[in-house]
Write a structure and sequence with these properties.
- The protein is α+β, with helices and mostly antiparallel strands.
- The protein contains 14 helices and 5 strands.
- Strands 1-2-5-3-4 form a 5-stranded mixed β-sheet.
- Helix 8 crosses helix 11, helix 11 crosses helix 14 and helix 12 packs across helix 13.
- The chain is globular and about 55 Å long.
């Protein structure tokens, strides 16, 4: 369970005194670590197909976060976002995720693959050498998402272990397992909302489409569950905002913009409604004392 992973990482940091413990764990992760989604990716025809398959079925491996692949003007972005509430060691989870993403991309594209940029939603450590050594890429701390940015031509790279028959077999099994899950489980809906927040298009219709439901069906099931799409969106925004305020020094205006608010004033008003504090007050109180 994701909350146990969170507590375990926090305990490891406390006992070891190593502030980049998640990064060390992430360096041991590759596609074989992800079960069926990882095997599905390895049998895909190209690196891009592999990443798409992994993202599409990642829910079978990870109950608290999800990857996303985006391509724009020759640049590809592989990102990872946490969507469960109450994560206390998000910086360690994101360190783990970026190291794992770099490993996956090297596994798919070869040892010569390099990222143009790796972004981390955490404060800049005093010593960034472990990050340079592990990620071998330019780094940006205090970012709004955990992501690996690289030229999109790598997505067309054919995979040496491509197996069309095995890929169809695993795709069918994985799709059935995903379909058997209730799409209105809290974590599934929050996962969809978290993914769509990154695109800036988080309407009820978009969430319903992400879950494979008709918008009216989605609305009726939300009503039966005693909630609304707006409530789910606000809850997810609140959790992501608290993660970023606690783990990064990103300006409040940037955080507000990333969550779909037109200005910091509207974000502050909403945040006070969620927590009873302004974003600045929350950030000051959540930072550990010396």
């Amino acid at each position: 369970p994701f909350d146990r992973v969170d507590r375990l990482l926090g305990g490891c940091v406390a006992r070891s005194g190593c502030g980049h413990f998640g990064l060390l764990i992430g360096q041991t992760v590759d596609l074989r670590s992800f079960g069926i989604p990882g095997r599905l990716a390895l049998s895909a025809p190209t690196a891009g197909d592999a990443l798409s398959a992994l993202a599409r079925h990642f829910v079978l491996h990870d109950s608290g976060g999800s990857p996303r692949v985006a391509v724009n003007d020759g640049t590809a972005i592989l990102s990872y976002g946490i969507h469960v509430p109450g994560v206390r060691n998000a910086d360690q989870v994101y360190d783990l995720s970026v190291a794992a993403m770099c490993n996956v991309l090297r596994q798919l594209c070869g040892a010569e693959w390099r990222a143009d940029l790796v972004t981390l939603p955490r404060t800049r450590p005093r010593d960034i050498r472990p990050y340079r050594d592990a990620l071998q890429s330019p780094l940006r701390f205090n970012a709004l998402q955990a992501a690996v940015v690289f030229p999109s031509h790598w997505l067309t790279r054919p995979l040496p272990d491509a197996d069309a028959f095995l890929h169809r077999l695993l795709e069918s099994r994985a799709a059935q397992e995903v379909a058997d899950r209730d799409p209105l489980l809290s974590r599934e809906t929050r996962r969809a909302v978290r993914d769509l927040l990154q695109t800036g298009e988080c309407s009820r219709a978009a969430v319903a489409g992400k879950l494979g439901l008709h918008e009216r069906t989605f609305g009726r099931r939300l009503q039966a569950a005693g909630t609304t799409c707006r409530q789910l969106l606000d809850t997810t925004r609140a959790d992501v905002a608290q993660q970023l305020l606690h783990a990064t020094c990103s300006p409040i205006g940037r955080i507000a913009e990333s969550l779909g608010y037109k200005d910091a004033t509207a974000f502050t008003r909403a945040f006070r409604g969620w927590t009873g504090m302004t974003p600045r007050e929350f950030r000051d109180r959540s930072r550990p004392t010396s």
